Every structure is written in structure tokens, then in C-alpha cells.
Amino acid sequence: MLAKDIKTGTIVVQNGAPCLIETINVQSPSARGGATIYKFRARNLVTKNKVDITLKGTEGLEDADFKKREVNLMYTEPGQVHFMDTETFEQYSIAADDVADEMQYVSEGLQGILALIYNDECVGINLPATVELKIAQCDPGVKGNSATGRTKPVTLETGAQVQAPEYLAEGEVIKVDTRTHEFLGRA
């Protein structure tokens, strides 16, 4: 796969290990004959370390032999999170520390969770781009605050905290971007 074809969320092989591309920075040449440079920030899915990859536009990386399976959250226990494949009913366990960032947006019954299966072992999960969660706790809104663009911290039903407009109240359901951790709007 050429560097120009690699997108955020793509899984590639770097130094013999699968890596999930998290960010991409493209630098165009300023001189004639210069090559466009692609800088990727990736996460090694086995060791969980960040990896920086720099490629010219004509270079590429190999696609990882990965399976993505749709799963549902079964239960969590100290140190482990357990998921079940929605088609085969196969169960996958993963260390809670490895998916701590993702779990702050996983609520009961969330659809669209994908397990990343490498060598028949679950090494991570992918969440839908947006999730709808209820506001569990926030400061009360003051009448007239909707005219300004000010925000306040709100705690969601899963325990995650995001910045949201001041006019929102407890119990309202909002959409949150799971990649940027930003408020998108009311659900």
C-alpha cells in the first residue's frame, strides 16, 4: 500500500508488528523535484508503544493480516474486559489497561464495536466514530447562557468527561466524537 493511500485507522505492518495509524502529517516539497513526505504516528498493537513512520510518496507499507469482528461488551472485571463476537459467539478477553481510553465511551448495548484479531488473539478494539451518551453530572445551566460559546465540563454516564455548551443539563443525551473526545451536538 502506497503512503498516499494510507488513511487514519489503517492497520499496517512495521518492523514485523501490526501498527494502527493514528495521525498523518503530509509535507509537500517547496523545491522542484522534491518528494512529498508522509509522517505517520502509529501505535504498535502488540506492545502498545507509539511508532513514528516517515515515508516518501512512492514508498509504501504492507497491509497487516488482520480480522475485524463485530463484538458486544459482555462484562468487565478487574484487569480484564470480555467481548463476544456477534456472529460466531466466540469470546475475546483483553487487558483493561490496553483499552482504557476506548472503554470510557463504551456503554451497555453499544453497537458497532470492532475487535482487532491478530493471530487469533484480540489485540484491541475500534469504536464507532460517534457515540450517544447521557450526561450524568454537570453544573446547572443559567438562563441566557446559550447566547455565548462558553463550555463547561460534563461527566457522562460512563465516567468520561468532555467539554460541552453551558446550556446543557443533567439527563440530556449528547453525541461525542470518540477519536477527538469532543462534543458534537445533542442526540
TrEMBL record:
Family: Belongs to the elongation factor P family.
Protein name (database record): Elongation factor P-like protein
Signal peptide range in chain numbering: none
Pfam families for this protein: EFP (PF01132), EFP_N (PF08207), Elong-fact-P_C (PF09285)
A Gene Ontology biological process term: peptide biosynthetic process
Keyword Protein biosynthesis: yes
InterPro entries, A to Z: Elong-fact-P_C, NA-bd_OB-fold, Rib_uL2_dom2, Transl_elong_fac_P/YeiP, Transl_elong_KOW-like, Transl_elong_P/YeiP_cen, Translation_prot_SH3-like_sf
Domain Elongation factor P C-terminal: 131-186
Taxonomy, superkingdom: Bacteria
Residues that span the membrane, as ranges: none
CDD domains: S1_EF-P_repeat_1, S1_EF-P_repeat_2
Swiss-Prot/TrEMBL keywords: Elongation factor, Protein biosynthesis
Residue ranges constituting the Translation elongation factor P/YeiP central domain according to the UniProt record: 68-123
GO molecular function: translation elongation factor activity
One of the record's GO cellular component terms: cytosol
